[in-house]
Structures are given as C-alpha cells and as structure tokens.
Design goal:
heterodimer, A: alpha+beta, five-stranded mixed β-sheet, two-stranded antiparallel sheet, 2 helices, 8 strands, 13% helix, disordered C terminus, B: alpha/beta, Rossmann fold, 2 domains, three-stranded parallel β-sheet, 43% helix, globular
C-alpha cells in the first residue's frame, strides 16, 4: 500500500496528465522527494527555499499541513494527500480584464457600463 | 443551540450558532453593517455613493440590504457559476450584478472588481477580504456572544472564505480562553473550479493570520452535502452547504476529543439557511447526484 496523492489540473503536466499518483515516504518532505524522482519538476512547483510555496496548500487526510508540521508532517501508507492552489479571493495581478474597455451598469444616473450585466 | 443527536457523547457536545437568523439570512450581515459604518465614520460614503464589491453572494446581499436603508447603491462582481437564488436576492435588494467568468472563480471576481475601481475612482470598494471591520464585527459580536452563551467552549469551528469570522471571533476567544482550539473548514470545490487556477497567481486574503488557527480542514462537496443532510435529518436545521463542511470539521474535532478522553464543547457556525441552494439540487436525490450537480459551482 502506498500514499495516494491528488494532483491539481495545473500540475498534471508533470504527471503525464494523471489526477492521482502514488508515492512513499515518512514525511511530506520525503514523499515529495519520491514524487519528484518519478515526476520530474514537481518538487520545484511545490517547494521554494525549503518551504511550501505560499500559494500551494497541501492536506494530509484533509488537514492542512501548515498546522501539522509542514514538510515534516508524518505520513504513512494509506494516507491521502491533496495538493491544491490557494483559493479564496482575488489575484495579486490583474488578468486580462484590466485595460479592457470595462463599463459599469447604469446606477443612480451614472453613465457607467460593464461586460456581462444582469439586472441592469 | 445544542445538537444532541449529532453530539457523540454527553461529554463531547456540539453547539450551533445560528447565523442564518440574521436579517438577510446569513452571517455576512455582521460584516456588511460594520464595514459600511466604518466607511461612514471615515467619510468615504456620501448619499448616493456606489459601492462595488467582489462577492460570491452573501456579502453582496447583506451590503445591498444595508446600503438601500442608508441611501447607497451597490454593484456586485460575482462569478457566473453561483446559484440563481443569490442573483434574485441581490436584485430584490436593489443591487446590480456584473458577472465574472466561471473559470476564474472568486479570484477573477476580485481582480475584476479591483480593475473596475481603479478605472472608476468614484466607486467605493469596501473589500471584505482586507477590511478590518469585517473581522472586528466578529471580535465585538460573534466572539463575545459565543462565550456568553457557552462559557465552557473548547472549540470554535467556522468556514474559511474572507477569514473574517475566524480571525475576529478566533482572536477574541483566544484572549478569553487561551486553551481554545480555533478550527477552519475550507470548502474544496470540484475540479472545474480549480481548473484554470495558476499557483503563481494564488491569493491569500489580507485578513488571514494563520497564527489565530489551531488547524484547518479541506472539505469536499461529498462530505459537505452528507453533513448538510445529516443536520436537517437529525437536528431539523436546514442549512446551506458550507455549514455542512463546517459540521464535518467539527465532527473530526469531536472524534479527536473522544480519542483523547477529554470533554469538549464544540461551537460551530451555521452560516446561512439552505433556501438559496435549493436550485443546486443539493437536497434532492442521492448524494452522488447532488455531488454531480454541484460540480463546477461555487457552493460556499
């Protein structure tokens, strides 16, 4: 039995498209080393300067590893590991919408306009 | 209120804080009122001012309600993959909606809102993800209320979105009950929601301070739906799906308490009622069908 690791879409270029991969290790850090030996480049996307990338969240059995020892979190066969990009709110950089001709829906007499508008 | 059916033992008990009983039906009324009052105090709002806010629904609904009472306009930037009831409620309270692409999730809604405010300086963005008044609403309200009603509280479990509830109530409770465990339940959406998300453009709300938390769970749609249904079946509480995720994390903490042989009084937040999510199919059919129906939707 091994440790099952769920890979987010954005990192599947490293796993040949696989959604889940198997690995082994005693800690999350050694597990990631093992995964990197099978799927080159993966570690570089997850770890920066010996610490987890700020915008990567890793969960062992659904618990965030930042609260359980980070890369030193103990793992064992049968555990389930999930890797996800950080979610919640906005992006620090503005995507394509910035610089576009954005206009707002008409409110309070303003001549404002915007992209897709409902209820306007 | 107590949750006797879901509590695993007489010593390890679950308690629900019913935030669905707020005027617009969600916990977000607290943050909306505090943010608007703070902005009024700072002189940022005048009669007729238009507020623009990125929101997946509840905050926008709360802001729209308060804003209408006080003579402001509201525009919400909302991902298009949110439930139809949320749109209807926003329109009922007089808000306008700008939809952001589903594939960009709430990240893109925030980016779009920031771009719009940059281009239209007459708009005011209260920005719930970074507004200290959001957390303060819970530091001054939710936290003290919890402690007053449940002086034996050992755990506080809430959802993680803007992080306002956990940061505010969590800080207050830590000051008063140093041994308390503050637990975050973070919704884990289906593949479609994460599909285009780039790790290098991730986002952590400005309000978030992980030192307030004891731990943080990621809860997927299957578990959230299962617990949402258990809540209505065993305790008669008809809650939204994110509350199911919170209950799942609370039950995980209850298991740990049982395993360690320690008594526990675990308080969890019922963020909103289930009404706004009926159209998602969350409450009908099998769990598998409900989970399939939620794929690609922002359900929390």
């Amino acid at each position: 039995m091994a440790i099952e690791v769920r890979i987010p879409t954005i990192l599947r270029s490293h796993t040949g498209g696989a959604k889940t991969v198997q690995g082994s290790g005693d800690t999350l850090g050694t597990l990631i080393d093992d995964l990197d030996s099978q799927h080159s480049g993966l570690k570089g996307r997850l770890v920066n300067d010996g610490a987890l990338h700020r915008f990567v969240n890793v969960y062992v059995n659904d618990e965030d590893v930042r609260f359980t020892g980070s890369l030193d979190t103990a793992v064992k066969d049968g555990d389930s590991v999930t890797i996800l990009p950080a979610v919640a709110g906005g992006a620090p950089t503005l995507p394509a919408v910035a610089g576009g001709a954005l206009t707002l829906p008409a409110v309070a007499g303003g001549a404002l306009t915007l992209p897709t508008v409902a209820g306007g | 209120m107590g949750l006797p059916q879901l509590s695993p033992s007489p010593e390890v008990r679950l308690w629900a804080k019913l935030e669905d009983r707020n005027p617009t039906g969600s916990v977000k009324d607290r943050a909306a009122l505090y943010m608007i009052e703070a902005a009024e105090k700072d002189g940022r709002l005048e009669p007729g001012t238009t507020l623009l806010e990125p929101t997946s629904g509840n905050t926008g609904i709360s802001l729209a309600m308060v804003a209408r009472q006080r003579g402001y306009q509201v525009i919400c930037v909302m991902p298009e993959n949110t439930s139809v009831e949320r749109r209807q409620l926003l329109e009922m309270y007089g808000a306008r909606i700008v939809f952001s692409p589903a594939a960009g999730g709430s990240n893109q809604a925030v980016a779009m809102a920031k771009a719009l405010v940059a281009q239209n300086p007459e708009l005011v963005m209260l920005y719930q993800y970074g507004n200290e008044a959001n957390a303060r609403a819970h530091y001054e309200g939710t936290g003290p209320e919890l402690l007053a009603d449940l002086p034996t509280i050992t755990h506080f479990v809430a959802g993680l979105g803007t992080t306002g509830t956990l940061m505010g109530a969590g800080r207050y409770l830590r000051e008063k009950v140093p041994s308390i465990q503050i637990v975050a339940a973070e919704p884990r959406y289906g593949e479609l929601v994460y599909g285009l998300r780039n790790i290098d453009e991730g986002f952590v709300p400005e309000l978030y301070d992980e030192t307030v938390l004891t731990t943080r769970f990621s809860v997927g749609p299957r578990e959230a739906l299962r617990r949402t249904r258990e809540l209505v079946e065993s305790e008669g509480i008809f809650a939204g799906i994110s509350t199911g995720a919170i209950l799942h994390a609370a039950l995980a903490m209850a298991d740990k308490a049982i395993a360690s042989g320690l008594p526990a009084d675990i308080a969890l937040v019922v963020c909103d009622g289930g009404w706004k999510y009926l159209s998602t199919g969350a409450y009908a059919g099998t769990l598998e069908e409900a989970e399939a129906a939620l794929e690609g939707q922002l359900w929390a």
